[in-house]
Amino acid sequence: MIEEMKKQMHFIVLFVLVAVLSGLKAHGETGPTEIHKRMETAIQIEQKAQKKGDAWAKEKENILAEIHDLKDRQKWLDFQRKRYKAYIEKEKGVLQGLKRKKKEFEKIQMDLEPYLDEVLGRLETFVKSDLQFLREERGKRLAFLKDSLNDYRVGLSEKLRRVLEALQVEAKYGRGIEKKEGVLRINGETIEVNLLRVGRLALFYETLDHGKVGVLYRDSGKWKTLPHEYEREINRAMEMAQRKRAIELLDLPIGSWKDIK
After folding, report:
1. DSSP type of residue 179
2. Nearest CA-CA partner of 167 in 123, 216, 109, 222
3. Mean pLDDT for the chain overall
4. pLDDT tens-place string over residues 161-201
């Protein structure tokens, strides 16, 4: 393209020279000075034409470079458009999954709240029928739990957490043994004793002077004095609860106490 433009410029210059010489010949102007002047004019025209040709060539080069850059950009945009299309499709799938989970959560929420009330009712019944120990502590826990379930300001997740925590505490009572001091009212007499809880199977007492031991009857909720033969076993169990003695098998009246005299 550039070579063609140069050929056209040379053709224009030759045309001008021919026209100048023809004009001189036609008017009889054949003087050296006039010819030189006309030649300079022709040369200036050629130089201007050359500059324009160079400028056009440079402009053409810039335009071609810009076209090349636009093509590359178009390829990049096509690639990005395909990628974002895939992203959008994937996000649509994620959105559908979230909608399904939302519906499932709403259903769980509708079922969970009344179920927690049902669990609380079962727990209250269980505590009433269970071995009577830590009455005040367990009663306060149940009352707090009931207030929590009836409080609209407490979120469902927090209500669930509190119910599970109460169940865990009650389950923990069934493992291990515990010794603590207490005061009992037996046969109209107030006595300071050491209490021994064996899981939730049995609750024993031992007077501070180690003179008497007894067991709590689950059905009646009354304390029954045990024969002296159990004093040593109960004392050993209390030492185990305090980790003063290694764990060993003991002969304790656990289970049915109807035959105890």
Report:
1. E
2. 123
3. 82
4. 999 999 999 998 888 788 888 888 887 788 899 999 988 88
Q: Cα–Cα distances in Å, from 207 out to 61, 190, 212, 224, 233?
A: 110, 11, 6, 13, 14
Residue among 105, 167, 102 at smallest CA distance from 159:
167
What are 2's two structure tokens? Answer: 């550039």
CA dist., res. 137 & res. 173, Å (int): 12
Among residues 173, 109, 117, 113, the alpha carbon closest in space to that of 145 is found at: 117
How many Cα atoms are found within 13 Å in the side-chain-facing hemisphere of 135?
A: 7
Decide: 205 and 195 in contact? Cβ < 8 Å. Answer: yes
Give dist(CA 18, CA 25) in Å, integer: 10
Q: Residue type at 88?
A: I
Q: Which residue has the tokens 């109460």?
A: 166
With beta carbons less than 8 A apart as the criterion, state whether 194 and 212 touch. Answer: no
Q: Tell me the C-alpha distance between 216 and 219, whole Å.
A: 9
pLDDT score at 261: 44
Tokens encoding 152: 């609209």
Give me 182's structure tokens. 């207490």
Instruction: Give the residue carrying structure tokens 């389950």.
Output: 171
**Count of positions (residues) in the chain:** 261
Q: What sign has the CA pseudo-torsion 239, 245, 250, 256?
A: positive
Q: 130 exposed, middle or buried (CB, 10 Å; 0-12, 13-18, 19+)?
A: middle
CA neighbor of 236 nearest in space, from 172, 175, 177, 182:
177
- What is the rounded average pLDDT of the residues 143-163? 93
- Locate 185 and state its tokens: 């009212």
